[in-house]
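User: what does the whole thing look like in 3D?
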Amino acid sequence: MADKAQLQEAIKTQGEVVRKLKSEKASKEQIDEEVAKLLQLKAQLGGDEGKHVFVLKTAKGTRDYNPKQMAIREKVFSIIISCFKRHGAETIDTPVFELKETLTGKYGEDSKLIYDLKDQGGELLSLRYDLTVPFARYLALNKITNIKRYHIAKVYRRDNPAMTRGRYREFYQCDFDIAGQYDAMIPDAECLKIVYEILNELDLGDFRIKMAWEDVKKEMVNEKGLSEDVADRIGEYVSMQGGQDLAERLLQDPKLSQNKQAFAGLTDMKLLFSYLELFQVTDKVVFDLSLARGLDYYTGVIYEAILSQTIPASVSTPAEQNGADEAGVSVGSVAGGGRYDGLVGMFDPKGRKVPCVGVSIGIERIFSIMEQKTSSEKVRTTETQVLVASAQKNLLEERLKLTSELWNAGIKAEVLYKKNPKLLSQLQHCEETGIPLVAILGEQELKDGVVKLRNVASREEVDVPRADLVDEIKKRTL
Amino acid sequence: MADKAQLQEAIKTQGEVVRKLKSEKASKEQIDEEVAKLLQLKAQLGGDEGKHVFVLKTAKGTRDYNPKQMAIREKVFSIIISCFKRHGAETIDTPVFELKETLTGKYGEDSKLIYDLKDQGGELLSLRYDLTVPFARYLALNKITNIKRYHIAKVYRRDNPAMTRGRYREFYQCDFDIAGQYDAMIPDAECLKIVYEILNELDLGDFRIKMAWEDVKKEMVNEKGLSEDVADRIGEYVSMQGGQDLAERLLQDPKLSQNKQAFAGLTDMKLLFSYLELFQVTDKVVFDLSLARGLDYYTGVIYEAILSQTIPASVSTPAEQNGADEAGVSVGSVAGGGRYDGLVGMFDPKGRKVPCVGVSIGIERIFSIMEQKTSSEKVRTTETQVLVASAQKNLLEERLKLTSELWNAGIKAEVLYKKNPKLLSQLQHCEETGIPLVAILGEQELKDGVVKLRNVASREEVDVPRADLVDEIKKRTL
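Assistant: Here's the predicted 3D structure for the full assembly of 956 residues, as structure tokens:
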């Protein structure tokens, strides 16, 4: 802890930094960050009368999910997981941090974005940067040579957050990968089929899946001793988009097909496209040799799915809304992946390779879009079927007893935690949270052995014998 | 990076440490840790021909979940989440790290177990230690004064791992909390009802829920100027266990009931017990005033659920198995919680209080038990309904086409990624992974417009018209 005079000096300096940024109309994010530092300094000093002043915020680039956001998140996950399961995938989980050296040398330039843990004695650790490297480590550690698995978990990048566009420092990845030595292009085709199915089912509007070929591109772009004429032609190819016909055309170019690696790549491209035709997904897939993926580990086909429409800036939270004065941002890539046949071998002591191909769904961008789509809608955040209520006083015990009976019968039921709540406030709770039914108890109902079941929307009420209540609720909330 | 001579010296020293520990028959965990350090040093030096040697392991105290463990985890979560939803809970999520100062001063002695992130510029961050403090921060930040929410997520403690007993450095917490100003003891009773329901449904054997009262205990234990006679009597009370009668008996002791706080606490104890009777859970609940919870923030009722049986040491992973020579360990506490009325106010700039009560399910211990219970059983890790197969060559395209048709109809289907797999290996895949049906294609079936549907268990085969295949599979895999 710095001494008081030092702290006061630091607070003064930091205050000037904030004032300067404000006068320069710096970005909201930049100002927020400097204000946070100022508040932290003030907190160290202690507030009035020694009362500790907290900086009440989440860490930069991270966010809480409120119940409505969680409901949307669960809906999106459920669609995606159903698809993965339909394709026979298992799931695994790995720790949020790995030995630092496990991540070293896998991400090229981006390694500087890795979060390290403080050295508190023991091992040097880092937060995972993606799910692919931990997956490869898992395969090598457990000597697994084939698996089809999905993994949905958070990853961490010390990136410049752009939260209005769904870019965070803590965010979900949602990966499906097929590891194993198989006949060419069949698993690759299944990955693309999965992207197609998921984007269709999420109903996010039109999309395109763009594919390129790491090997072919390297050959085309890095070929040495190229005549000017050939170089021009290759430039033309790289900017071309197309389907199977493009693969065919490239194969017919002797310059390319004479090169062993390029020929193998082009043959695979053709084969992949024939499988995609069987899977009926070619209407959305194009070869686009200008495509590049940022990571070092890709070795074969690479792909990216892109939404066609431009969507308005996110309106997910008030804080973000204030910062978002762009009229609209392109959502861009919502899925990507490719083949990485060398990564597992980097972890194996004997360098044994396990060929892998996979896809990562850009779930945060999808959340952003879904949040906007539902921003004006009412989204239920509970599944409660019935509220146990009363219009009369002194019936708390009866309400608790009936609620307990319903819970024991598997009914989703709530009761207000008040001795004598007003009927109106009980009905209001239902309206606000979307509970469809109210089970009303009164002296008369207790005497008659019935419960008054009220439909919140229609206001209809009917007396139901207590023994039939569970069935009646189930029937009305199918 | 240290220079080569220094590294070689360090490796030599570390090698001696390992040999010494082995000769002293130190614990496996201790040896593993020192071996890991040795390997890390060797890795820094680089292996033969400059090839990098990886230390292939997960961080100390953490583990991967393999597909079988994930299947068990999902089953446990599904039971618990169903219960939370039955009680009308919403869910939220918070980031895995918080500003360091958010966690400061909440955990007493245990604060030394908090993982800090390295200072890479910007804010000082720590990994969350539990879900309760982030929940309180969330309420204060968003000015929420009432909510019933659950939160299932991983938390981090630099504790001494005892993985054979389900104690990890990264582990799940599974929390249910009710925040808000309500009539006394109703939310508290619901929390206990939830513990009761979950432990019943998980079918882990007999259990007891022990309750104590922070306020009452403080009064009883810290009361000044106590005569020896009264002190003795209080010692007796503290060691007593009982139900409503105990609360009654304590209330009748003038020494206690004359104290305002103790009287209020005892009155609440009585009230709580009456609600627990309405919820029909008193058969498992006892007051046990010797109970203590480790955390600073509890203010009222506290409780803990304990399994009655002793279970054998975990057999979850080979590494753990080797280290587990204890014949059997007590599983002990599998749930705990209590009332913490002051925590949210610690985050509010004006100190506004939001009363809270909650419960945390000890999910890792429950996983351990479930893993042992199923260690000899076959647990399915996929939900695949049918494998599309062929006994003849050159039918890959037909297999892919049919598989795609099934996926499009929502059937969970797999196909082997081989051009010409043997029928036997296709059937073996079904046996190994529990796929119940095989859809077999051959030249004859294609000509006749049928598919041979085979039941893997009974080996029965029947020709199904292709148009009826989806319905037939659905019917047979209900």
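In plain terms: The longest strand of chain A covers residues 147-156. DSSP finds 18 helices and 18 strands in chain A.
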